[in-house]
Design brief:
The complex is a heterodimer of chains A (about 475) and B (about 475). Chain A is α+β, with helices and mostly antiparallel strands. Chain A is built from 15 helices and 13 strands. In chain B, the strands form three sheets. In chain B, strands 8, 9, 10, 11 and 12 form a five-stranded antiparallel beta sheet that branches. The chains are: A alpha+beta (about 475), B alpha+beta (about 475). Chains A and B meet through helix 1, helix 2, helix 3, strand 5 and strand 8 of A and helix 3, helix 4, strand 8, strand 12 and helix 9 of B.
Chain lengths: ~475, ~475
């Protein structure tokens, strides 16, 4: 990247630093010559003298530079002497171009591991994208946190860590044990992000607000046109320095557990394992849908009426929200997958029991559906009533008689009274209805001929003129279970 | 003419011997001053002697020829002699330095005689040393003037090849970048160690402890070498412990232990390195035990797993296999109890060793297959029993629901009839039975009509309803 302005600045710096020196040396040489020859020197001799002195100074400076460059190349294991020379010139006179530079993007740095920036550090540049702030170090000290910008590295300043500000989604299978000590596995999906700490969109952002302000604030929604990844330097610093170092014999990529790994592996795994260990297995593995009250009777729920898995998820989320602050992170969401028994035989057995229990519940659920049952029972009630009333026709018909309308009416009332005599049925009837039935029963009884008289119709049993066979299990209509 | 040349040479020789003595003193104190001073004196003698001998040759240039011969001889003999004292690549460097000086001297003299020597040769010589000093600031991340001086010496001795070793610490690994002899005496050292802000070197002289370095740049001196590179970041070790419960059941448990070298609480901030107490580093490094029969000691970061393993075995041996799960005591969490005891005991044990345990956890306390199988069988039996009880309870409730629905349907039926016939009660004895019957049958028909199509009345009941309707008409 050719930049005339930079080149001019470097040139000025070179002139400022070496110009007086070279001029001084030339002046000294001239003075020496002047004293030695009392000024009687030809122009050619002057020219030769100055060129000779320039060559001498140049050679000395070049020798010094090469000695230092060799030191730099060997100590920092640079690939070429040119890299070392350029590094020294940049350190002395500043940068004549944008190079060397590295791009920090998507939580990683793209640079050659053999570059001067990687091995020695600045002077150089970093192009830091909005999603990946960096922490820098120099001479054994952490120097600064830098967000999205072009960062100019000072001499020996290097990248210490890069932090990814984008939301992170990890699905992690946690092996745990139930309260009884039976191994189970529970996949957990954690979505989290580095906490912007309430970082606001930059001033001057004029994007429209599609959400009500209070809701947008609760959800921490940035303004449209604002920074999608607001950065909190404290949290970036926390995240960059909370790394745990693992065994040296591990593969390189897993040798360090960074902030994201700590949120998931250290915090989530440990917490979820502790929570699961408090639950008996039958609460962990209840699989039926919980929309029915009857199903909830069969399958375990906690005191708040939640299924165990939801309670576990809520507790996990709450604990994580409290704990990950120290890592500079915040939890966006937590969800749990199906909890499974680790033992294959036990899992198979559990699935069979589940299937059986599910069938059972479905069967009973169907019978328990109130509206349908109520209609069925109404139909049954009418059918049962008519069946019992109809017995009079059967009984009298067998004797070759036709029942009079009084007899029929009396029978209709008698059966109605039998129905209303059931204590459970009475509990659903208003007192007014009972009074009406009693009064009407009296009217009908008084209108009928006395029992035993010749007009008394339908006296078939001798006990009660109106009592006809019925209401027994033998002739009850199908489906009448009373 | 010869006399004046010899006087100039003598003057120059005195100046050179003086400068060499000063340089020797800076590089190796008095002995260094003596060695370099004698070397310069020898070179001067050779040059002056050469000039005198050359002057006896015919012609005007004999003195010059003798001087040049003396310079060459000195350039060969003196570096050879000095290299017996100054090790490394000193012979080549001293020879180069000598010939450079001679060339500058001749240039200065030819340009302006003795004035040239003062105003041209001397400043150019100074430029060389000053240039090296200036650049030494840019080859190492120095912070103080003293460090800058050491950087200058490092650069110079690196060129001479008499430096002490240069190390770089990279991810716990100590890498020797520039070999060197830490026992060198004249014009030797210093050495140096470069590290990031999260590592620190431990320096000994091979026999005794010398000091703890600092993160970043540490210079080493005579006899000093780097014994250890200590990582100041929190370390996490995971390992599986095999233990036995009180009732003899083998148990496996994976254990995680984060720890670090003790340092100031909340000490990590911008502008500083990872915090540590020098005494903690010392305790950690020199408390590394050697296993019986082994030569190499355990590293400090291996101590925590070793101690934790022993403690965990001891703690687990106090529990029975059943107690490890404690399924019948809802208030107890044996895993948490074990973990807490392990961490607190380990903290006590590790603290004198300069190690701070900053957390820890254990995974599943997994018994052997047989015990696990027994647990699963027990659970299956309990589970099945509980499921049956729950199913029975639910069945009972379902039955109750159906009964209630039946009773409610009956009640609605009776209530409907009662409501329809309410008017006849008000009329009392005057109510015609036929009218009551007709209304009664009418109410029944209305109820039948309201039944859903999916639940038609059985044929028998429909027939009865027709008979009830017709019987009245027949009678009438």
């Amino acid at each position: 990247m050719f930049n005339p302005r930079r080149i001019w600045q470097v040139f000025k710096s070179m002139i400022r630093r070496t110009g007086p020196l070279v001029a001084g040396f030339l002046a000294l040489a001239a003075v020496a010559r002047w004293i030695a020859y009392d000024g009687g020197v030809s122009t050619r001799a002057w020219a030769l003298l100055l060129v000779g002195e320039l060559v001498a100074v140049g050679m000395i400076l070049r020798l010094v530079r090469d000695m230092a460059a060799r030191f730099v190349r060997v100590l920092y294991a640079l690939e070429t002497q040119d890299q070392a020379r350029e590094f020294l010139l940049r350190s002395l006179f500043g940068m004549s171009s944008f190079q060397p530079y590295a791009v920090v993007h998507e939580g990683a740095v793209t640079q050659d591991t053999n570059s001067v920036l990687a091995k020695v550090g600045g002077p150089g540049n970093l192009v830091v994208y909005r999603d990946s702030p960096v922490v820098l170090e120099r001479a054994g000290r952490l120097t600064r946190v830098e967000g999205p910008s072009f960062v100019q590295l000072e001499a020996f300043e290097k990248l210490y860590a890069v932090v990814d500000l984008r939301p992170q989604r990890w699905v992690y299978k946690v092996s745990a044990m139930s309260k009884e000590g039976i191994p189970v596995t529970c996949p957990a999906e954690i979505i989290f992000q580095l906490d912007s700490g309430g970082g606001e969109a930059p001033a001057g952002s004029t994007g429209t607000q599609p959400y009500p302000p209070d809701l947008a604030s609760t959800l921490r929604l940035p303004d449209l046109g604002g920074d999608p990844f607001p950065m909190n330097p404290d949290n970036v610093f926390k995240a960059a320095t909370c790394t745990w170092v693992r065994e040296a014999n591990r593969p390189t990529e897993s040798r360090v557990m960074d902030w994201a790994g700590r949120v998931v592996v250290s915090e989530t795994e440990g917490t979820l394992r502790s929570i699961l260990a408090r639950y008996p297995l039958d609460q962990l593995v209840g699989q039926l849908p919980m929309e029915s009250k009857l199903a909830q009777k069969v399958w375990p729920v906690n005191t708040q009426g939640q299924h165990a898995r939801e309670a576990i998820r809520e507790e996990l989320e709450q604990t994580l929200r409290q704990n990950v602050g120290k890592l500079g992170a915040r939890i966006l969401s937590v969800s749990l997958g199906q909890i499974q028994v680790d033992d294959k035989v036990a899992q198979q057995w559990l699935e069979n029991v589940n299937a059986e229990a599910e069938n059972w519940a479905r069967r009973h659920l169907a019978e328990g559906e109130t509206e349908i049952v109520m209609k069925e029972k109404q139909s049954e009630a009418i059918h049962s009533y008519l069946h019992h009333v109809g017995n009079i026709f059967v009984a009298l018909g067998a004797q070759g008689q036709v029942p009079s309308h009084e007899i029929i009416l009396a029978r209709m009332f008698e059966v109605l009274e039998q129905v209303s005599a059931d204590p459970l049925t009475r509990s659903y009837m208003p007192g007014e209805t009972l009074k009406t039935l009693k009064a009407l029963g009296g009217i009908i009884a008084r209108a009928l001929p006395p029992a035993g008289s010749a007009d008394a119709p339908g006296d078939t049993t001798g006990d009660s003129p109106l009592l006809l066979p019925g209401g027994t299990s033998q002739d009850a209509p199908a489906g009448d279970q009373r | 003419m010869l006399e004046s040349a010899i006087i100039i040479e003598l003057t120059t020789a005195i100046a050179v011997i003086g400068m060499a003595t000063l340089l020797g003193y800076l590089g190796g104190k008095r002995l260094g001053a003596a060695i370099l001073g004698l070397g310069a004196a020898l070179a001067s003698v050779l040059c002056i002697g050469g000039t005198l001998l050359g002057a006896k040759l015919p012609g005007n240039t004999g003195g010059w020829i003798g001087l040049i011969a003396g310079m060459i001889l000195a350039g060969i003999l003196v570096p050879w002699a000095l290299s017996k004292f100054i090790l490394g690549r000193s012979r080549r460097f001293i020879a180069g330095l000598w010939f450079g000086f001679c060339a500058l001297g001749m240039f200065g003299y030819l340009v302006a005689g003795w004035v040239g020597l003062v105003l041209i040769t001397l400043p150019n010589l100074a430029l060389f040393w000053w240039g090296l000093y200036v650049l030494s600031k840019y080859v190492l991340p120095v912070k103080t003037q003293q460090e800058r001086w050491l950087a200058f010496r490092s650069l110079l001795t690196f060129v001479l090849g008499t430096n002490y070793p240069f190390y770089v610490i990279n991810e716990r690994e100590l890498e020797l970048r520039v070999p060197g002899n830490p026992f060198g005496q004249f014009f030797a050292g210093p050495g140096l160690v470069l590290s990031r802000c999260d590592h620190v070197p431990v320096i000994t002289d091979g026999v005794t402890f010398k000091r703890i370095g600092q993160p970043g740049l540490t210079f080493t001196h005579k006899l000093e070498m780097v014994d250890h590179a200590v990582d100041l970041r929190p370390q996490l070790r995971s390992f599986t412990v095999e233990a036995r419960t009180r009732d003899g059941v083998p148990v496996q448990v994976k254990t995680f232990m984060p720890f670090r070298i003790r340092g100031r609480q909340r000490g990590l901030k911008l502008g500083s390195s990872f915090p540590f107490y020098q005494r903690a580093v010392y305790s950690a490094v020199f408390g590394q035990p050697v296993e019986h029969g082994e030569k190499a000691a355990h590293r400090w970061d291996e101590l925590v797993p070793i101690t934790a393993e022993r403690l965990l075995r001891e703690i687990i041996s106090r529990y029975t296999c059943e107690e490890l799960a404690a399924p019948f005591d809802p208030k107890r969490d044996p895993r948490a109890e074990i973990r807490n005891e392990l961490i607190s005991t380990l903290r006590e044990k590790m603290s004198p060793g300069g190690i701070e345990v900053i957390g820890g956890g254990i995974s599943n306390l997994k018994p052997d297959e047989e015990a696990l199988r027994r647990r699963i069988e027990n659970w299956k039996a309990t589970w099945a029993k509980r499921l049956r009880v729950r199913q029975a309870e639910a069945e009972q409730e379902a039955w109750l629901n159906v009964e209630q629905a039946r009773a409610e349907a009956d009640a609605r039926f009776v209530q409907h009839v009662g409501n329809v016939l309410q008017g006849f009660v008000d009329r009392g004895e005057t109510a015609a039975l036929e009218a009551i019957r007709l209304r009664f049958v009418g109410a029944l028909k209305a109820m039948v009509r309201n039944l859903p199509d999916s639940m038609p009345l059985p044929e028998e009941s429909v027939k009865t309803l027709r008979l009830l309707e017709r019987s009245g008409k027949t009678y009438v």
